[in-house]
Structures are given as structure tokens and as C-alpha cells.
Amino acid sequence: MTRLAHYFVASMLFFYTPLMSANNQLPEIGTAGASALSIDKEVIYGNAYMRIIRASSKMTNDPVLSEYVSELGNHLVAKADQVRTPFNFFLVTDNEINAAAFLGGYVKIHTGLFLYADTESEFASVIAHEIAHVTQRHIARSIENQAAAQNLSMAGMLGSLLLGIANPVAGIAALQATMAAGIQNSINYTRANEFEADRIGLRTLAEAGYDPSGMGSFFGKLSEKYRYASKPPQMLITHPLPDTRVSEARARANRYPHRFIAPSLSFQMAKARIIVRHGTMSPSEALAHYEQVLERKQYRIKEAAEYGKALALFALARYPEAKTIIDALATTHPDNLFIIDTLTDIDIAMKNYDAAIQRLSAAQTRYTNNQVIVLNLAYALSEKGQFSESAKLLDRYLRDKPNDALAWGQLSKTQRRLNNVAASHVAQAEYLSLHSDYRRAIDELHSAYNLTENKLEQARIQARIEQFKQAEQELESLN
After folding, report:
1. Is pTM, for the whole model, over 0.70?
2. Which residue of 165, 257, 308, 377 is most buried, as measured by CB atoms within 10 A?
3. Is 285 a catalytic residue?
4. Residue 129 marked in a binding site
């Protein structure tokens, strides 16, 4: 198979079941809204939403954090009931305390949620709540109700919501006034929706092995902090939090057997990574913060604080000091993706390419086709000048994961460094299509077509152009 042919692919810890009393059986509203919006339609709109979000929001393009939130989210989904769609969890860099779900199982998580949650159970409680909004089809019902209130068809309402993401001014005009630019602001859950999402989310949280008191704890802190605030966080605007929600979450958690949940190293490392790399502190401020935390022992897990210090040192280009800390952490946590990723960053910065490649190649046997390992290894190979090996690795990975925009972007750069200009254009086209930028994607494919003499590859490129044209028309028909 030729080089270009590979790129024409179709685009797209522990478990615990608590003993439950009769009082813990939860009422479920069910699947109202199904007649107006089918599951298939939800998925179509959800996919369009994700492509637009990639283009219009500040996505947190950090494979290690993406892996963490996906693993945690899917662990919760595995214990949820009435799951009808795949779930996709993604991060945006925003210090606002918020998370929000959309049609088709897409759950957006703000990095600010990490900064406010003290434990993994608190963090997971918010994600479990959003999962319940999806499984109980609260979003479909909310859109249906708003469409009726504004005398719009469901298609018109959904199209306006998508338009509001892509172009807030046009979106508000299309809705003739009152909806906010962000799509989550446009979805108004009823009081019953919120209580149901709490109840079902808490059950999912407990059955997934987290501390069910995490929900009440998080709600309580949020309620207390912003009780008299003139400008509450976005989460309290889209998810009002009366005292009854806090008290009910605590009461329900008390019905589960009490058990000790050890602090999560992965969560605390994720939190440190966000503080240093995606927060508001400068590298110097972050270093001072973690030095103080370590000196005063103000940490839940010392190793996570050391990790945060190493990240700050790396950001200040103090590579040997950062390496000393990370090497020590790696002796006790050799398979930890946070540590493997940071070791790669340090090795590449210090031009220790062979060490990085050897470590990552070994890790591939433990983490098959893992995004963190593959993208790190491809980058290390490319930095060493082994562009062909890097391109082959990314090519194999993308056959299984064609919706990885980061990998397509990296492949495009690698192919250009190999002087495979046509293949670079093709990879860039796939990257752009995942950001709903079909016109520029088509332009890239036209450039690839003009640089290709092989008739079979030209036919494949032409077929992909037609697919992108159809996808663009379908997106436009949605809004």
C-alpha cells in the first residue's frame, strides 16, 4: 500500500458494588424526549459539536491529561445505567469551575475544576453528575422544551445552538435574543433534572469505587464559597445549587457503608500539571509554590508535590534539577504516564534522544497504541532525525484512531520534514476536518492532488474531497 493510501481512513482502580437498602433505590424519569430527538440524531449533533469546539475553544491539548480524564470518565460510564451512546471526555483550559455535557455523550471539563476539587472523588462526582444528564436525556428534553417555548422546530433549535458555538453573535441573532453565546448556557436543566442527576450520579460514583461523600463535600464547599457572591462561577449558573441539593447529597452518601479511599496519585499529579502548565502562575511562582508546599508538608501526596516542582523546574529550563526529581519518582512508578511523559520532555530538551526512544519503545509493549506513548515516541524519533520511523508509527496509530487531531498535526509536520509534501497536505486536511474547517481541508487535498502523479492516489484524494464536501453540506444543514 502506498504512503498516501494509509491516510484515507473513515473519520471517526478498583471496582466496588455497595450493599443498597430499599431506601436507596432511585426513581428515574426515563427517556422522555426520545420521540423528538433520536439517539442517532444525538450522535450526529454531538459529533458536529465536538468538531466546532475543537475550532472555537481553547482545548487543553495535553495527551496525559486527556488520557486521565478519559480513563476516569469511562470508568464511571462502565458503572452507569441506560448508556446509549459512546462517551467522550475532553478538557478546555479555563479557570472557571465548570463541567458540561452535550448530546451524544460529549462531556467538557474545565481545568478549573481540578483546581477546586481536593480529592479524586470530589472531581469524579461532578463528572458522574454530567454523565447522568446524558443517560437520562435531560439535554434532549431541555432543548425540546426551549424549542417549544420559542416556537422553533427541534432542528432549528439545535442548529441555532451549534451556530452559537461557531459564531456567538450569529447564534444569538438566530435565536432572536436571550441565549448566551456558550452552548451550556443555553441548556437550562429543571430542578427535577438536577436532583435526578445528583441521585443517579451519586450511585454511579459509589459503584465505580469512589467515595460517595465526595459529591456532598464538593457541593458544600461550592455553596459556602459563593453563597453571597455577586458573580458566581458558571457552574452555579447552569447548575443552581440550593441547600436542599447539598443536604440530600450528604444524606444519600450516608446510606452507603463508610470506607477509606486512599488519595489518588494520578489525580494529584494531574492537578499539579494543570497548576504549572495550564494555570495562571508563572513558572517562578509555581516553583515557589511547590517549594513552600514541600517545606510545610501541605500536600496530600508528597510525590505529586515533587512532580509539580519538577514541572516548574523544567519550565524554567533547569533540566538537570528536574531530571533528578523525575528519575527518583520513576524508580517507584516506572509505568506512570505522567512521569514517562515528563522524562521524555527532559530527555529531548537535553538531547538524550536514545534514552527517550528506548524507554518509550519498551512502554509500547505495556500500553498498546496509547496516545501518550505514541505521540511522545513519534516526537522523540522526529527530533533525532528518524522522520521515516516517526511517520510510520503515526500512520499505524491513526488507522485505529483517525479522530486524533494532535496525531494528524504531528504527522503533517513529519511528512513535510521528509519532503513528502503531498502526504503532508493530506494529513493537514484530516487535521482541519476534525476542526470542522472543511474548506481549508479541501484546499489541502487539492494541493496534494496536484503534487501526486499516481492515478490510484489521485482517485483516493478525489474521493476524500467529495466526502469533505458532503460533510460540509451536512454541517451547514444542521445550522
Report:
1. yes
2. 308
3. no
4. yes
| Region label for 177, one of left (φ > 0), alpha (ψ between -120 and 50) or beta (otherwise) | left
In the β-sheet with 106-110, what is the strand arrangement from edge to edge?
88-92, 106-110, 99-102
- To the nearest whole number, what is the mean pLDDT of the chain? 84
In the annotation, is 207 catalytic? no
Between CA 294 and CA 376, with CA 355 as vertex, the angle to 5 degrees is 75
Residue pLDDT, tens place only, 217-227: 998 888 776 66
Instruction: Look up residue 185 and give its three cell numbers.
Output: 448556557
Residue 194 labelled as part of a binding site = yes
Cell of 447: 494541493
pLDDT at position 177 is 30
Nearest to residue 50, comparing CAs of 466, 403, 453? Answer: 403
Cβ atoms within 10 Å of 353's Cβ, excluding its own: 18
110 is in an annotated binding site: no
**Interstrand relation of 88-92 and 99-102 (parallel, antiparallel or unpaired):** unpaired
Question: Which among 94, 122, 196, 198 is annotated as catalytic?
Answer: 198
> Distance from CA of residue 14 to its chain's centroid?
22
Q: Which of 42, 94, 122, 130 is catalytic?
A: 130
Report d(CA 107, CA 126) in Å as an integer: 11
DSSP state of 30: -
